[in-house]
Amino acid sequence: MVPARLGGHAATVYISGQIGPSVPTRYRWPPMIALRDSIVDEIPHLRRYALRLAHDADAAEDLVQDCIERALRREHQWDPATRLRPWLFRIEHNLYVSARRRRTPENRGARLPADLVAPASTPEAGLDLLAVHRALRRIPPEQAETLQLVTLHGLDYRTAADILGIPIGTVRSRISRGRAALRGLLGMDTTAA
Question: Cα–Cα distance between 154 and 93 in angstroms, integer?
């Protein structure tokens, strides 16, 4: 046994990683360590989503940091039986919406960071990616955000609806209208599915 102090509480930590009964539930080490490791795995996804929300690499990094900080402070609210990514996206989305309500409009010129640009087999493929990125910035933000959650991050409609706090029918509608708008902006056949 190894004595330890956690947040001002005395605890007895067993070598096997289990904590003695004197530790409050919120200070259990193994789930917290597992959560931290899982959050580290989600950072690239959080960065992509934050960049789409913030349209600025520096603001996106701040948003990711705030999201991670809040997730760690509220780790007791996460249900390990659920998927972590939607919970983190929900935190990040709520932080962004709260910050947007507090700030004044500003110039939101976004650049794709080099680590987020997909490797292109041809120069034309890189131009196509840039065209899609520009088109996404021209459609309504709620459509672009919903499209990103479903297409880029591969979330199902129900999970995207939970993250955005909207009905699933609204997600379907935004996806449909967003795809149609993108096809129009990219000069694609608008009758395609």
Answer: 16
Per-residue pLDDT tens digits for 107-119: 344 444 454 445 5
Backbone angles phi, psi at 74, to 5 degrees: -115, 30
Tell me how many degrees the CA angle 14-19-24 measures, rounded to the nearest 5.
Answer: 160
What range defines the domain where residue 87 resides? 25-102
**Does 64 reside within a domain?**
yes
CA–CA separation, 127 vs 113, rounded Å?
15
Determine phi and psi for 4, rounding to 5 degrees.
-150, 160
Q: Residue 44 domain-assigned?
A: yes
| Average pLDDT for the chain | 74
Between CA 13 and CA 28 the distance in angstroms is 10
pTM: 0.50
